[in-house]
Please model this.
Amino acid sequence: MGAEIVDEAVRAVPSPALRGLVGWYAGYRQRGVAPTRHRGLPSPWLTLILTLDDSLSMAAHPDPAAAPGDFATLLGGLHLTPALIDIPGRQSGVQIGISPLGARVLLGVPAGELTGMDLHADEVLGADVREAHDRLREATDWPARFRVVDGWLLRRMFHQAIRPAALTSPVADAWRLLLSTGGRLRIDKLAAEAGYSDRHLRNRFRAEIGLTPKAAARVIRFDRARRRLAVRPGRTDLAGLAADCGYADQSHLDREFAALASCSPSVWLAQEFRNIQAGHHPPA
Model:
């Protein structure tokens, strides 16, 4: 008999106290599956990954100058090009989707300082993340693992004194408005809503969120489109999807996939189909 195949994907919602700072937790464990390469695509979430059994093998980073390597914990900022992750038949860990608005509160730095970067998480979070990582690995099931992450992030939040400012600034309001409109709001209207000039909003947005409003809108539209693709792989009307997500036409959608994913929608679906079937597509 062959080795046992393990293919688990579990999602959880963070504590209500973390609402607005953390979007979701995704636990995953695969063993005995076919080796593959996964694309870590641009999204409106910073990525924090704490592995369980094996390190994360990064074949390429959004920053092409960054060297490939293995990560026991990884912290990644917003980015405009894909990361490439080698999966040699096994992987396991918990991925945490952190809002750019949660970066100052939970990570101690604004999201703008992490743009386009993949870092060993302890380079930013120090011994605190190493201790949380140890507790996570000692937990015996997914509910217990998610409780470890919840408790750790809540402690970090309560040790900060800047939470209200992080969530009520004009930039925070502009970010939420851009998200709520699916990245389809004109930037001049976004600036007017924030009470800023276009230039001032662009500078403040880049510093706090990590991208300009225009780039953030692109990422939000793209993220919405690829999530829709993952819901009904192979049965999606791409022209209709393009229109629904704010693209001029299907060619516009194809160009954005080429720019942000380095492949076409059909190629991405073909590469990720098995993971999508198993529930490893991006959490909603």
In short: The beta strands are 6-12, 22-31, 36-40, 46-51, 56-60, 69-71, 73-76, 83-87, 90-98, 118-120. The mean pLDDT is 92.
